[in-house]
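[Automated response] Your request has been received and processed.

Submitted sequence:
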Amino acid sequence: MGLEQIRVLTKAVDCLKSLHFPSLTMRQDTARTADPETFGWIWSLEDSQFMRWLRSGHQIFWITGKPGSGKTTMMKYIVANEDLIKQSSLFVDSKRRVTQEYRGSSTGRDLIIAVHYFDHEGDDLANSVAGLLRSLLFQLLRKATAF
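Generated structure:
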């Protein structure tokens, strides 16, 4: 590893440290884990909102709903099964063409899933726009640099 690579990694680590906050993953860590059969439909129903999103090429999948309706549990399931997204039968490439398998983009960018949970029981930072941005940036940087 060269000196320049060490400098870049050091800056990335410093950036990650500055973005991290104690309650960053608290909501995901404390959320119930879904029974494996609970959300299996998300991959199999061709007309589910999730599958329509995969085919659309839009970059953000936003889940909203009433308190206690299972939003966090559903996202925890999706994040835990990230490989199923990559194995799913339909993906939209960078030119919005439907492909039959996930290959990553021709620019070398790969699928990165980043999530943030607003939590009425969480602290002020976790429930703020600043917390949202820090959380997403932390996850993107961490996954992009493979820490």
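Summary generated for your ticket: The longest strand covers residues 91-92. The longest helix spans residues 3-19.
If you did not submit this request, please reply to this message.
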